[in-house]
Amino acid sequence: MGALAKHVANTARLRYPEEVVDKQLQSTVRELAKMVDTMGELIHDQLISPDADLALEINEIDDHVDELHRYLLTTVTGKDWEGSSRAAVDAALIGRFYERYADHCVNVGARIVYLVTGLTSEVYAQSRDETPTSEMEERLRNLEQYWRK
To answer: Dihedral through CA 39, CA 111, CA 56, CA 147, nearest 10?
Structure first.
C-alpha cells in the first residue's frame, strides 16, 4: 500500500510544476483520493479494534472506487477525449494506483473478518443477512470469549 502511495507521489513529482491530472478529471481523482483515504483510516481503526461488520463496509466503499476508476478509464479512452496521450496515461495510472490501494484495503478487511469470526467475508456477510441479529451476536460473543482464553 505504501508503494502505491509512493507511485502517486512520484507521478506528481515527475510532472511538477504541471498538474498530473487533466482539469476535466480532477474532481474524480480527488474523490478517488478521499475514498481511498477513508478506507485507509477504517483499516487503521480495524487493526486497533477489530469489528467484522465495520470491516465489511470497506467492500461498499471499494465498489464506489471501482465505479470511479471505470469512469476515469472510460473518459480517457473515449472518442471525445481532448487531452493529450500523456495526460490520459497519467490519469489511467493514478486511477489504477488508487484502485489497487483500495483492493489492498479490502483484502485486509477480509482478513479481519476471518480473525474475528473464523468465516470468510462472503460467508460471514451471507450468514449475517440470514441469521437473526441476536443469534449472530451470541456467536460472536462466544468466539470472543474463546479467543480471550
So the answer is: -120
Inter-CA distances, 42 with 46, 48, 55, 69, 139, Å: 6, 10, 8, 20, 24
Task: Determine if the peptide bond prior to 17 is cis (ω within 30°).
Answer: yes
In degrees and rounded to multiples of 5, residue 82 shows phi and psi of -105, -5
Answer for the pair 36, 102: CB distance below 8 angstroms, yes or no. yes
- Residue 125's identity, in one-letter code, is A
Cβ(102)–Cβ(135) below 8 Å: no
CA 110 to chain centre: 12
Contact 25, 84 (CB under 8 A): no
Distance, in Å, from the CA atom of 6 to the CA atom of 105, rounded to the nearest integer, reads: 16
Residue with cell 482464553: 149
Q: What is the mean pLDDT of residues 47-65?
A: 92
Q: Which residues contact 77 (CB under 8 A, 6 or more apart)?
A: 88
pLDDT digits (tens, 9 = 90+) for 72-129: 999 999 999 898 888 899 999 999 999 999 999 999 999 999 999 989 888 888 887 7
